[in-house]
Design goal:
Blueprint: E1 8-15, E2 18-23, E3 28-32, H1 39-42, H2 48-51, E4 55-57, E5 62-64, H3 73-77, H4 79-93
Antiparallel strand pairs: 1-2, 2-3, 4-5
């Protein structure tokens, strides 16, 4: 996928499952992650204590969780435009059998 590159430069948890993310182009997104927390990698983040352990990965300039879950910074930057599609895809992850 060819798209602009963005770095996450800061973040703040503003309410459960919702993070305000700041980018290197002086923009920000306030993202409710709960609709996409499905599947093997992301469903553990429904545990709020784990979700709130998010940190800024200084090497990759992205948000990352202790279970190595992360999202492409471009996706975070474009969240408003992608949110519905991402949520639909995420719910489908739970319907895929583990041995598929």
């Amino acid at each position: 996928m060819n798209h602009p590159l963005y770095d996450v430069i800061g973040f703040e948890i503003v309410k459960p499952y919702t993070i305000r993310v700041q980018f290197d182009d002086n923009t920000e997104q306030t993202i409710n992650f709960k609709p996409v927390l499905y599947g093997e990698l992301y469903s553990p983040l429904r545990n709020l204590a784990l979700f709130e352990q998010v940190r800024l990965d200084a090497e990759h300039h992205n948000l990352i969780w202790p279970n190595d879950a992360d999202f492409d910074p471009w996706m975070l930057h474009e969240w408003d435009r992608l949110a519905d599609k991402l949520a639909a895809q995420a719910m489908a992850w739970d319907s895929v059998p583990n041995n598929a």
